[in-house]
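Lay summary

Proteins are chains of building blocks that fold into shapes. Our project writes down both the chain and a compact code for its shape. Here are two examples, one after the other.
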Amino acid sequence: MGEGILIVDADEGSASALERAFRDAGFDVRHTADGEEALALLHEGPDLAIVSMEIHGLRGPELLRRIRRTDGTSELPVIATSSSPDEIDRVLSFELGADDFVAKPISRREIVLRARAVLRRARIARRVRPPKTLEAGLITIDTQQQQVKVEGREVHLTQVELRLLTDLAARSGHVQRREQLLERVWPDADLGERTVDTHIRRLREKLGPAAEQIETVRGVGYRFRLVRRCETEQQSPRA
């Protein structure tokens, strides 16, 4: 039996075409048009989910959010799809943690190739997984629970912000070019380098006293540096 794929799509024509494409490619395929039913099917352990933004019951964006917040599915590879011509579904999908996005109508050959690429990256990521807990200056990152704390207080980040912070922290002291960050954090998104700057700005706002640990290297990118608690206190203005 091949790798398992769960297709969540209320468009019968699109879903039927995807089912045929993946079965012909040797995958084991399940399909549902309903977001609530998808949550139940996810517990059967598919290797990949293809989630349309247009589904019944639980909407596509909320399903993506639930997948990323639920133990057992938080690291499940996901490809999001949408028939909307607007960019918003594409951007929202990546914000909510999708690994890839494909606009409808979908090329059968392309979606199979993209699925294989996402699955391949997931296998590699499992082999080179960062340690469960990263402690970097004022910041503690629990990669398993997907939780970030600054000086012991939890900071709520989006999936993209979490991936970006983890990527930088795992390479502390090394300059990361914007194009490198785009390739690792948004591997299949056709986005410009300003996307990195926008997310860095939001990330700094949420990190508060630890924001200075993300250093801008002008004209190049960013560097994550370790800051001791006493150094931060020395840099803070005295009353």
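And here is the second example, written the same way.
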Amino acid sequence: MERPIIYIGDNTILTKLIYTPVIYLDPRDIVQAHIMLHGFWEHGLTANFFQTVKPGMKVLDIGAHCGYYTLLASLLTGPTGEVHAFEPNPAHFTNLRRSLLINGYNHANIHQVGLSNKNEEVILYVPDGGGATIINPGSEYQKEVKMKTVVFSEYFPPQQVDVMKIDIDGSEPLIMDDVIKIVDKSDNIQIFLEYAPTLWVGHDPKISLQKFADRGFNFYKVAHTGVLEPTTVEEVVAFEGPLHIDLKLTRN
């Protein structure tokens, strides 16, 4: 399939994912540069996401970044579904909003807030190569942006949800108690969670993850092929790699 790549100015290109949706991207970001060149990101996780999200579902994309998974969720749930994307980075938010508009995904809602356990104004540290975090700033973080964080359960009242994707660069532990409130209202919820031990410093991952195990969730690592590899809380906590693990949590 031929994929157009059109530069529209201001470090922004317009292209098409291999799965149909059109997307606005900033190619200075390494993730977005990969999507621009190949039309997809995280082949294995994407494959499992396609197997999981169905028409009419309610999906939360927490840490939407450029909106890749938001667009896929909007495509897969269809007009009878409901998608909520949370992304505090102003540049990502702007492009995501444009992407949703050009695709006509009116059932997708975007929220320019950072989810946390406090209502406050914080600094978002943004590196040149993509990603962003409110914690662990290092020398690679070149830009500081003021942003608002909100208490998850106050901003988005706990309710039934079918699928949740969580990738907020180390802030995951801050919202876990409120994620559990949603879990307790959602018998069949399936969760995609990025676990990066170097970003969870200062938080005991076992405390957060055990809450899901206690509620009957099975843990799987999502392989690059999309295959689910059974794992346990103990194995996840023992992971010390420099990168991260893509997890899927499901009661099924």
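What can we say about the second shape? The longest strand covers residues 141-151.
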